[in-house]
Amino acid sequence: MRSLLLVVVLTLTACAQQPAKDDSLYRDLGEQAGITRIVEGMLLNIAGDARIVRHFENIDIERLRDKLVEQICVEAGGPCTYTGDSMEESHKGQNLTPSDFNALVENLQDAMTTQGVAIPAQNRLLARLAPMRAQVIDR
Ligand code: HEM
Questions:
Q1: Ligand 1 in contact with 84 (CB < 6 A)?
Q2: N or C: which end of the chain has fewer CB within 10 A?
Q3: For ligand 1, is residue 129 a contact (CB within 6 Å)?
Q4: Is residue 47 over pLDDT 70?
Q5: For residue 121, what pLDDT is reported?
Q6: One-character DSSP codes across the chain
Q7: Ligand 1 centroid vs 90 CA: distance in angstroms?
Q8: Closest ligand 1 atom to the C-alpha of 60?
Q9: Distance 14 CA to ligand 1 centre (A)
């Protein structure tokens, strides 16, 4: 009986120390399938965006798709692990400007709108990506 009590107490303590992860944004983005559609939509929009398409011409676009899906899944609180390079490393030498950054964000917003993601959820994702801006531009 005492050992049962101990197990109960330890379990409750563990739960208290690890509050359930908030995956509401992950769900609002449509989980894995929705995030994949958003990323592919963004890359298609970029393909037609004369402002920034040159940056994406000689890269492994499937790898970029996969790493972006992982990263957005993680940032949205989903059950994923990011396995790509750091933001500094992957944007080094691209000399990206604030305008390049804004153009990519517009393409992401358009892709989310096309997928039917509500504006508050869109803004929550953008707020989580915003801190990466400084790691991406002027590298
Ligand atoms: C918050 C903004 C951004 C995020 C979260 C982001 C995220 C990523 C990720 C996850 C990768 C893959 C890293 C890897 O391969 O391991 C990547 C690579 C890349 N990003 Fe970004 N990125 C951002 C902004 C931009 C902008 C503004 C541009 C250009 C307009 C850009 C162009 C690229 C290119 C061309 C690559 C491929 C580099 C290569 O394979 O050599 N990114 N980015």
A1: yes
A2: N
A3: yes
A4: yes
A5: 98
A6: -HHHHHHHHHHHHHHHHSPPP--HHHHHTTHHHHHHHHHHHHHHHHHT-TTTGGGGTTS-HHHHHHHHHHHHHHHTT-S----S--HHHHHTTS---HHHHHHHHHHHHHHHHHTT--HHHHHHHHHHHGGGHHHHTT-
A7: 6
A8: 40
A9: 38
